[in-house]
Specification:
The complex is a heterodimer of chains A (401) and B (236).
Chain A lengths: L20 E8 L9 E8 L4 E5 L6 H8 L7 E6 L2 E2 L5 H6 L1 E5 L10 H5 L1 H5 L4 H14 L4 H4 L9 H13 L5 E5 L7 H18 L2 E6 L2 H7 L2 E6 L3 E6 L1 H6 L4 H7 L3 H5 L15 E2 L5 H10 L6 E3 L5 E5 L13 E4 L4 E2 L4 H11 L3 E5 L5 E6 H9 L2 H5 L3 H7 L1
Parallel strand pairs in A: 3-8, 3-9, 6-7, 7-8, 11-12, 15-16
Antiparallel strand pairs in A: 1-2, 1-4, 4-5, 9-10, 12-13, 13-14, 16-17
Chain B lengths: L1 H10 L6 H6 L5 H7 L1 H34 L4 H13 L2 H12 L3 H25 L3 H9 L4 H31 L11 H7 L4 H29 L9
Helix pairs in contact in B: 4-7, 4-9, 4-10, 4-11, 5-7, 6-7, 7-9, 8-9, 9-11, 10-11
The chains are: A alpha/beta (401), B mainly alpha (236).
Chain lengths: 401, 236
Amino acid sequence: MTPSAIAQTEGSSAQTEAVELEFRDVTKQYPGASEPVIEHLSFHVPAGEICVLVGPSGCGKTTAMRMVNRMIDITEGDILLGGESVNAKSPAELRRNVGYAIQQIGLFPHLTIADNISTVPKLLGWDKARMRSRVDELLELVSLDPDETRDRYPAQLSGGMRQRVGVARALAADPPLMLMDEPFGAIDPINRERLQNEFLRLQREIRKTVVFVTHDIDEAIKMGDRVAVLKKGGILAQYAPPAELLMAPADQFVEDFVGADRALKRLALQRVRDIDLWTAATVKVGDPVAEVRAKLEDADVKIPLLVDDAQRPIGWLSEGALRAERVRKDLRSPAEPLVELDDILRDALSDLLATETRYAPVVNSRGHVTGVLSLEVISHVLHDHTLATTAPTSADFLEAS
Amino acid sequence: MIPSVLAQLDIQDPAEGDASCVAENGFCPGWIADNFDRYLGPLGEHVYLTVVSVVIGFAIALALALIAHRRRWLTGPIITGTGILYAIPSVAAFFLLQPITGLGNQTAIVALVSYTLLIIFRNITDGLRNVPAEIVDAARGQGLTDRQILRRVELPLAVPEILAGLRIAFSTTVGLATLAVFAGGGGLGSEILTDRFFRSNVVVAGGLAVLLAAAFDLVLLLVQRSVTTWQRAAPA
Ligand SMILES: Nc1ncnc2c1ncn2[C@@H]1O[C@H](COP(=O)(O)OP(=O)(O)O)[C@@H](O)[C@H]1O
Ligand SMILES: [Mg+2]
């Protein structure tokens, strides 16, 4: 990537292209300290991906992140942004091109939300009209009402709203790279999940390269395209996509850190559409019973599933429904729970367990039956290791860089 | 003092001539009304002494505070130095300075300035230091230079404490400036001194000094309220 890709683009809605980020043998040792805080850290984040730095408290995540925008000096090695060393520019110039959001947010209490968000655009000399339209655009992007919010002061907003403003401020000048240090760490669990989902949705639109620091492995798995697990001393224990981390932890440390329930955690990574579902025998009222019995032979689930004319599931038929020549509407149970192809496997499993059924019809976005999810299918996923081999490994990755 | 003034107000008959009241060394509204003009000049001088001293004191203290903001180790020595100045009895200072600066307002101003330094310096340094670290960190992380952080973030956030310091400095200086007469300066103090046994005179000159201090305080309070609206913004 050329340095020009880092340059600010014209117009408030035009997007800067994300940049790749590379840690090249980075070491940090504080003066007077006997041990380095970060030791020979090397990894590569492709442009437009979220890289999560995760590890126990004090392992050096914040230090590693803050070396990227030179809030902390690098002792040895180099960090490259779009192929260019972070030391090539003055710290202030570098930081204006790198979004920065921290857990404590650090909004300026004496400035309105609009002025807070305009901090970097003002430094870059944008004109007033451009700043104003950018503020409104960003407030909408982070799900805040511009008319309600822009003239307020930070103290007048809730914690979750302030954190959204913090993210908007970091995005203001459309930087190609974002640094986020435990951005949702001080938010209650319900709002944290909402903010995480919002950020992932946002990221699908803006495609920034993101360095995201957290000590919470669940958050790391959820947010990361790549996860770097650090141990004390800033040593990289494993750098891999979340699925690989869960299925093939590199060592005992990673295995312990990921937790004993790592198999279950994997279910958060997959959607129902990603897995092989069971087939169902779908029948309509009035179908010939002989035909239904033939269908049942081929289907994985041996209970006929009654659907309407639009292929929408109605319920599971009882034995009695097939006693006559033609299928009668005699249900043993309704078509519950109903699972959608886009559901996350973990949520689908909890629906199955909550309704105490073994099978759940799966429908596509139009409501048509496309298969059946069963406890057996999920259990198969939990034991299946093919995902680990199909997902890119960290070795592929270092070669590619 | 005040109760006796009130007591005399009661028995005062307006029809009775001022002459007898003045002769009895009473509190004489008639005399005050007739002679009020003679206080306006000294009042103006008092305002001048106070404003000039506090403004110069503020400029010096601000410069010292900004130097100490970059070089933290200087804070202690500066507080010690300004603390010593603050501890010198003011009348002694007025006399001690005379061989150097001569008789007159400039001597009074030098002494008065030296009394404001400690108060203003401490309030500016406290104000700057009380800006939460994460706010400064966020500012630096967004690419503000040290100078921009100082101007756009730290100083605005320190304004309430700086103004609080200025309010104390003004009240103190209005009071101390009544002693400027010992340095050969003017102001309400010289009025008090010239007719110090005449009750009406002392009450008026002293009362004006008190009112002046209150007026400065009120003005600064209004300034403070108008520049810190963000502190009182109603929660959503
Ligand atoms: N300014 C500093 N001087 C010396 N040691 C420091 C300094 N800042 C952080 N450290 C040490 O560096 C280590 C890593 O800190 P940090 O990066 O904040 O960890 P994390 O974000 O993973 O919790 C800690 O052991 C911490 O004590
Ligand atoms: Mg940290």
